[in-house]
Backbone:
């Protein structure tokens, strides 16, 4: 059986992250990202739920996750997953969309799963060039061709990165985003929002697609990624992002990102070290 391999690369020139999972069976719990994800199924079958919709992903299928789209997936066929994807920050997508459409508006991709041989070929070529560290401008051409097709065929203007929802829920979100490094309780969050525990859970889950606790964990993981990219040690990143201990942090990071905190940090640390060696 093919061994499991997980690889991630950040491309400075394109300002995006590419990653590849090969031979994995790991399920991913319901979560969301603060960035866009454009992914391609290469092998295996996955059962995906996204924004209360259900999909069976097969080789050749492409997933399009907007920032904030809650989703979860598990292996469906008893085999393993082979998957490649690009992560693009909203500010980078804004610049690219402005170049392509002439209007600086974030796209909202829909549906979340498509099947297009043209998109798959373009995405695969771009992904391989990023993973190989290519410096040819053909890489940038592929990126613009890919996004131009996706924006023209599968998007409409994205009014906000965070969907509009009830004032009380936004107050809860703001409180967690400002205090993610503290040990918070559901009672504290409810007090800020002015809702009972039952009412907050219902309203929050309906508006965000995840529970308040899962939202908080996503915020913490996002901040931890930034610290690790800056070279902060995993144990320090865990402490600075509110996790109770490093074991808890490592388990959550691996569940949501698919890589351990140490491996994720080394990707950026090794790259920075090589760049500093260049005279």
Residues:
């Amino acid at each position: 059986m093919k061994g499991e391999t997980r690889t991630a690369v950040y491309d400075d020139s394109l300002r995006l992250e590419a990653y590849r999972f090969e031979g994995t069976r790991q399920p991913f719990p319901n979560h969301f990202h603060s960035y866009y994800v454009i992914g391609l199924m290469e092998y295996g079958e996955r059962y995906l739920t996204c924004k209360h919709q259900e999909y069976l992903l097969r080789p050749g299928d492409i997933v399009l996750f907007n920032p904030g789209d809650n989703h979860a997936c598990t292996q469906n066929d008893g085999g393993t997953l082979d998957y490649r994807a690009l992560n693009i920050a909203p500010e980078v997508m804004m610049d690219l969309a402005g170049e392509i459409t002439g209007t600086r508006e974030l796209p909202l991709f829909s549906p979340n799963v498509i099947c297009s041989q043209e998109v798959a070929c373009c995405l695969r070529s771009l992904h391989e060039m990023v993973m190989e560290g290519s410096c040819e401008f053909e890489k940038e051409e592929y990126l613009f061709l890919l996004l131009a097709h996706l924006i023209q065929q599968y998007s409409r203007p994205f009014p906000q990165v965070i969907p509009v929802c009830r004032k009380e829920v936004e107050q809860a979100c703001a409180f967690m985003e400002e205090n993610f490094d503290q040990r918070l309780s559901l009672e504290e969050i409810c007090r800020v929002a002015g809702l009972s525990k039952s009412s907050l859970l219902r309203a929050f889950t309906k508006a965000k697609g995840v529970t308040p606790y899962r939202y908080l964990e996503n915020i913490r993981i996002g901040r931890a990624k930034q610290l690790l990219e800056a070279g902060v040690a995993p144990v320090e990143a865990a402490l600075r992002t509110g996790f109770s201990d490093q074991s808890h942090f490592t388990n959550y990071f691996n569940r949501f990102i698919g890589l351990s905190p140490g491996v994720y940090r080394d990707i950026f640390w090794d790259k920075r070290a090589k760049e500093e060696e260049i005279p």
